[in-house]
Amino acid sequence: KAGVTQTPRYLIKTRGQQVTLSCSPISGHRSVSWYQQTPGQGLQFLFEYFSETQRNKGNFPGRFSGRQFSNSRSEMNVSTLELGDSALYLCASSLRGATYEQYFGPGTRLTVT
Amino acid sequence: DQQVKQNSPSLSVQEGRISILNCDYTNSMFDYFLWYKKYPAEGPTFLISISSIKDKNEDGRFTVFLNKSAKHLSLHIVPSQPGDSAVYFCAASDGTGANSKLTFGKGITLSVRP
């Protein structure tokens, strides 16, 4: 069974631009969660989608948004990029939901200059 | 307010010895705990979990201990191997409802010396 895939793997953007990241979960998994990882901060929860509905959202500004499609693929969008948005963005899929075992993708490394 | 704390940023042990990674939490609503391992340039991989109704769970070389009264859990790796060198994240779940999520610690970097 194929794992979680994320595209692109690396991205460089300029302040003020917007970016869209994509995640394809493991086949059959309906839950997709997004996390931001920055040095020294661990994994910060962004949001979870389950069957195309956002189930939970972390403490991030409204510039961070996401969606999930009927095939469970998910996208995350960040508008008006700031330097502090530079991070590794991880997507995770789960059969039962974000509070159970999750399977992570390799992440997208976003650099904002 | 950090609800899951991994106070030691790094740990170095000799191959063959025991590695003990600690994690403390403050939220008494946490009822399910997980450990993830992360290698550079890869996403975290699930290692082992424990429910709050248990105090120990074992899987091969990995054992997780939970002390609810102290709000403390630990991951024991015996014997440690060089391939175990990675960042280890402790995570806690606050239920299974619609607003539940995993809260992660900042991670501990384990180095196993050959």
Total strand segments of chain A: 11
Total count of helical runs of at least 4 residues of chain A: 0
Helix residue percentage of chain A? under 10%
The percent range for strand residues of chain B is over 45%
Global geometry of chain B:
globular
- Coarse structural class of chain A: mainly beta
Report mean pLDDT of chain B, rounded to a whole number.
Answer: 93
Can you walk through the features of this model?
The complex is a heterodimer of chains A (113) and B (114). By secondary structure, chain A is mainly β. Chain A has strands at residues 5-7, 10-13, 19-24, 31-38, 42-50, 53-57, 64-68, 74-78, 87-94, 103-104, 108-112. Chain A has no helices and 11 strands. Chain B has strands spanning 4-5, 10-14, 19-25, 32-38, 45-51, 56-59, 62-67, 72-77, 86-93, 102-104, 108-113. In chain B, the strands form 2 sheets. In chain B, strands 2, 4, 5, 9, 10 and 11 form a 6-stranded mixed sheet that branches. Chain B has a 5-stranded antiparallel sheet with strand order 1-3-8-7-6, with no helix packed on it. Chain B is globular and about 45 Å long. Classes of the chains: A mainly beta (113), B mainly beta (114). At the A-B interface, strand 5 and strand 10 of A face strand 4, strand 5, strand 9 and strand 10 of B.
